[in-house]
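During the second half of the funding period, the structural biology subgroup turned its attention to how the target accommodates small molecules. The most pressing case was uracil, which had performed well in the primary screen but for which no bound structure existed. We therefore specified the complex as follows and requested a full 3D prediction, including the ligand pose.
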Amino acid sequence: MTQPMFDAPTVIRTKRDGGELSNEAIDWVIDAYTHGRMADEQMSALLMAIFLRGMTSAEIARWTAAMVASGDRLDFSDLRRDGKPLALVDKHSTGGVGDKITLVLVPVVMACGGAVPQAAGRGLGHTGGTLDKLESIPGFTAEISTAQVRQQLCDLGAAIFAAGDLAPADRKIYALRDVTATTESLPLIASSVMSKKIAEGIHALVLDTKVGSGAFLKTEAEARELARTMVDLGTAAGLVTRALLTDMSTPLGRAVGNAVEVAESLEVLAGGGPPDVVELTLALATEMLGAAGLDGVDPAETLRDGSAMDRFRRLVAAQGGDTTRKLPLGAHIETVTAPRGGTMGHIDAMAVGLAVWRLGAGRSAPGERVQPGAGLRIHRRPGEPVAAGETLFTLYTDTPERFAGALAELDGGWTVADTAPPQRPLIIDRIPS
Ligand code: URA
């Protein structure tokens, strides 16, 4: 019998001691873990070693390629609409708090003529996941076949689905990272995002790379390096790839959680909603349309004329969701009130993300069910006037014993001040510039 060329302890030791993994070692690890020949505890140790030691760009490229090769690669190049090939484009965020942008952006791009086959993820750490949010709509399912994705792309212009057989190695590793404190790693984020996007069958990709307290990478230098790494991986795979660097020191919008974020997305689709959500959606839409060769279309018009709302409803209905039914909201409510009057100061995205995770919107064990109605509403955004005693935050959960932990996370994560905090630009940079 032939002996395997590698074994997990040797590979873990190499990385633990700061060495570089060979292409063959990476291929072996990804294949062995995907097929259950490497145990969770061994992969956990390797992930922690990668977290602590990092990876060279050659290692990241190979780790990404091995994750792509672990599953299917979709191909929609044969699909036509009005006799023309589809403008296949997607965006992916590196993860933030209150980041419901996909829910608005995808219908906007659909309404502008783009086709979006989006393999989306569930919550990771303190950040929310698009699938957890959409699944809070009664009946919605992300578990759809490739045949259905193809049909929706032709008929409607989008599908948002669980990655399924795309990069299955990432699915297992993503779930493990979520519960082993190994999320905040540049090589692991870059390879996770890009393996799914390369396997997705798109021609163009826009990356929303978050920076700030609520992002996985906190400094602008790290986020910039992540954006460049992902743009290089995408370009090498033949995708037109662009990235925006955007602020995640404050949560996006006024709602953080699952169903509460769907409700806020509906407000934006109806032509209202928080200005920061609108601004980022339109900036990303403009990038996506440009990257897909659909210049000259005004994405803002789709929010004004209701065409994006119409696409959203049709997309959700195609995947079993019923937007006429009431969205869930946690049965128990707690509020945080202002100790004094003044101006709302900074609201720390990480504190809010952790509070919402503690309310039950995220997971602390693999496969755990999230609460669709868990979440938080922000009544006063930074810079808005505050009266003493008024409600600043409302928290929702079905399990009231979670309030103490959530309130503790929120404690110290916001201020009421005499003057407004300095305004930070939401969109910091574009890569390539
Ligand atoms: N999104 C992903 O798909 N993976 C990450 O690691 C972070 C954000």
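Two results from this model are relevant to the next phase. The pocket of uracil is lined by residues 94-95, 121, 124, 188-189, 192-193, 196 (CB under 6 Å). The radius of gyration is 21 Å.
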